[in-house]
């Protein structure tokens, strides 16, 4: 049985498209979890608990590998600290705070633009040029996001203005895009051990934020539902999704891997229909076809 599970795991790690699609599903589930968290756990406490749980589970397994690769980590320690603080702590903090002051339409549109930030960052930092086919694929997937975010009326985007929450979402996307691009130069060590290190830093950097939240906004003591939500986001969006994403970036490069982020709003809509009972409209199907088609094109693009 163990041999069979290892075989399946090894096989899964050779399929970057599947890994990145599962990543998008888990991150979309984070949207549902975020809704369920309202009134049951405060935003910054949720961020902190999720990373503390991840570290508690992974450090006993991979902590030895982290220490064994310290010679590779030490020259890039500042970069690693910034990666964890930006991609893990900063992104989630800004995202949860933004949800209180902006609409789902705006968040969907802005989050769907993250792959463009990744491509721009890969070009600026590494000189990675995107092909015309790849750019076309990104734009098509972005069109799918706009369709689902505007509920089938893309011209409505012209009537949407930015508010404070929109700026926070945009800043969060820039932070995660920066993290994605920086993975290109991460220390030479196993992905699981590297993720454990990042999670440890994210947990540590989130603690002062919880103290700040307690002093300024007050904390919501987690209810049973709050703890269940925290456990979900620790296992799926935080742990499995990040490990899968790291592997996807290793296999495809940051530009092509970042395109799959556009699946998150689509899966969010699907999960909302199946789990929350929201209606499924024709524009959901159109958006899904656009996103899948765009990824198919981007997958065949070069210059990553």
Count of runs of 4 or more consecutive helical residues? 14
SS-based class: mainly alpha
The proportion of strand residues reads: under 5%
Q: State Rg.
A: 19 Å
Structure summary, number of beta strands: 0
Oligomer category: single chain
**Main sheet record:** none
Q: What is the total number of structural domains?
A: 1
Shape: globular
How would you spell out the order of helices and strands?
HHHHHHHHHHHHHH
Mean pLDDT: 80
**Helix coverage percent:** over 70%
- Report the span from N to C terminus: 38 Å
Which regions contain 5 or more consecutive residues with pLDDT less than 50? 1-8
Structural account:
This protein has one domain. By secondary structure, the protein is mostly helical. The chain is 78% helix and 0% strand. Helix 6 runs parallel beside helix 9.
């Amino acid at each position: 049985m163990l041999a069979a599970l290892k075989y399946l795991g090894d096989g899964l790690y050779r399929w970057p498209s599947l890994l990145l699609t599962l990543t998008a599903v888990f991150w979309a589930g984070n949207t549902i979890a975020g809704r369920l968290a309202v009134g049951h756990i405060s935003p910054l406490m949720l961020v902190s608990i999720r990373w503390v749980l991840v570290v508690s589970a992974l450090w006993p397994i991979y902590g030895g590998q982290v220490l064994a690769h310290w010679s590779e980590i030490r020259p890039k320690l500042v970069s690693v600290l910034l990666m964890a603080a930006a991609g893990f702590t900063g992104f989630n903090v800004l995202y949860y705070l933004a949800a209180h002051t902006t609409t789902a339409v705006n968040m969907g549109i802005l989050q769907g633009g993250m792959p463009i930030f990744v491509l721009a960052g890969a070009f600026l930092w590494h000189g990675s040029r995107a092909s015309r086919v790849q750019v076309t694929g990104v734009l098509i997937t972005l069109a799918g996001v706009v369709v689902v975010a505007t509920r089938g009326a893309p011209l409505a985007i012209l009537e949407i203005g930015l508010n404070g929450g929109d700026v926070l979402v945009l800043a969060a996307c820039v932070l995660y895009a920066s993290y994605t691009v920086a993975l290109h130069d991460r220390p030479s060590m196993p992905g699981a051990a590297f993720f454990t290190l990042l999670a440890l830093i994210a947990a540590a950097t989130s603690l002062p934020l919880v103290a700040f939240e307690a002093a300024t906004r007050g904390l919501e003591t987690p209810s049973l539902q709050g703890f269940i939500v925290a456990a979900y986001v620790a296992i799926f969006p935080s742990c499995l999704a990040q490990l899968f994403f790291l592997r996807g970036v290793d296999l495809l490069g940051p530009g092509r891997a970042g395109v799959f982020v556009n699946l998150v709003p689509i899966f969010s809509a699907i999960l909302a229909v199946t789990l929350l009972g929201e209606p499924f409209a024709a524009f959901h199907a159109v958006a899904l076809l656009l996103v899948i088609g765009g990824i198919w094109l981007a997958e065949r693009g070069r210059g990553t």
